[in-house]
Write a structure and sequence with these properties.
heterodimer; A: 116 residues; 7-stranded mixed beta sheet; B: 113 residues; mainly beta; 5-stranded antiparallel beta sheet
């Protein structure tokens, strides 16, 4: 069974440019997460989807970040315009989505963004 | 607000040693706690998931314990190997914050041959 797929793996852009990341979760997983991970720190949640609905986007900087999950499967995270401080690894994860928060999360390899 | 800390930040041991990694969380109202492994440039791999009603979980040379009331978890690695070198992160799923995990900063482990 394929794991969580993310692309691109690496992206280098100049500040003020737009950038987009793509995630394909494990088949059958209803819940999808986007995390941001800075060097030497643990991941921080940006947004969580239950099927196609964004149920928690409280940590997403909505002035420049946006996300969508079409048909409750693939998801795209966009930054426009990018700032120097956005340089980080962006991780996507998925889980089956059982009630009570008992299921485990499976992570993709991440996209390493460098903003120059 | 739930906060998760991990001690030590980094650890270097010779091959064959048994070792313990520590995780502390400030709010004991959690659904579960999960230990992950992260290799350089890679995503996170789940190692062990402990439900709030459980005291420990074991997988091979790994044993994770949970003391919910004191806000602590430990990951015990027996007979460490160079292949165990990675960053180990713990994450808790608080009862009051939906299904979102809160991660610790991780412990970077180096096992020397």
């Amino acid at each position: 069974e394929a794991g969580v797929v993310q692309s691109p793996r690496y992206k280098i852009i100049e500040k003020k440019q737009p950038v987009a990341f793509w995630c394909n979760p494990i088949s059958g997983h209803n819940t999808l997460y986007w995390y941001l991970q800075n060097l030497g720190q643990g991941p921080e949640l940006l947004i969580r989807y239950e099927n196609e609905e964004a149920v928690d986007d409280s940590q997403l900087p909505k002035d420049r970040f946006s996300a969508e999950r079409l048909k409750g499967v693939d998801s795209t995270l966009k930054i426009q315009p990018a700032e120097l401080g956005d340089s980080a690894v962006y991780l996507c994860a998925s889980s089956i989505g059982t009630s009570g928060g008992t299921d485990t999360q499976y992570f993709g390899p991440g996209t390493r963004l460098t903003v120059l | 607000k739930q906060e998760v800390t991990q001690i030590p930040a980094a650890l270097s041991v010779p091959e064959g040693e048994n070792l313990v990694l520590n995780c502390s969380f400030t709010d004991s109202a959690i659904y579960n706690l999960q230990w992950f492994r992260q290799d350089p440039g890679k995503g996170l791999t789940s190692l062990l998931l402990i439900q709030s009603s459980q005291r420990e979980q074991t997988s091979g040379r790994l044993n994770a314990s949970l003391d919910k009331s004191s806000g602590r978890s430990t990951l015990y690695i027996a007979a460490s190997q160079p292949g165990d070198s990675a960053t180990y992160l713990c994450a808790v799923r608080p009862e009051n914050y939906g299904q979102n995990f809160v991660f610790g900063p991780g412990t970077r482990l180096s096992v020397l041959p």
